Amino acid sequence: MTIRPPLFLIGAGFNVDAAAEAGPVGLPSTYPLVHQLANICFGLSELPSDRSIEELLAEAIASKNRGPIDKLYDSLMQADYYLAGRLSGPTFSSSYRRFLSRFSRSHFLTFNYDSLLEVMLFQLRQ
Fold first, then answer.
1. Helices 53-62 and 34-42: angle between axes, nearest 10 degrees
2. Burial of 7 per CB tally in 10 Å (0-12, 13-18, 19+)
3. Tens-digit pLDDT profile for the chain (126 aa)?
């Protein structure tokens, strides 16, 4: 009988505490949550009740409107630069790093927009 390492499905909320975990990083930076993307990408106070953020982004792409995607990209890249860079540093201890180290032989699948998990796994050579 072969024992296989666990598979972790990482979804929304994985990085919700990343800013608090990283501590001061210079600029205000957090990973945007889905409910914040309506404002970040489209300047809306909330999503229309009949549409998801993915539908709005798909419509922007279909109409060749790069603005919302560029805003999403900029928001994620800022968070990845400041937060993932710090959290994945070799001398920085965090709950994220401890979790990934503890399950270093595991497999991870994520549907998150950001790259926190991938950056940390890369830094840990996993």
1. 30
2. exposed
3. 888 889 999 987 888 888 888 887 766 678 888 888 999 999 999 999 999 999 999 999 999 999 999 999 999 898 888 888 888 888 888 899 999 999 999 999 998 888 899 989 998 888
* DSSP string for residues in 42-65: H--SS--TT--HHHHHHHHHHTT-
- Cα 95–100–104 angle (5° rounding)? 150
Whole-angstrom distance, CA of residue 48 vs CA of residue 54: 12
Q: Indicate yes or no: pTM above 0.85.
A: no
Residue 82 gets which letter from DSSP? I
Alpha carbons 34 and 53: distance in angstroms, whole number:
7
- Rounded to 5°, angle at Cα 67 from 111 and 18: 40
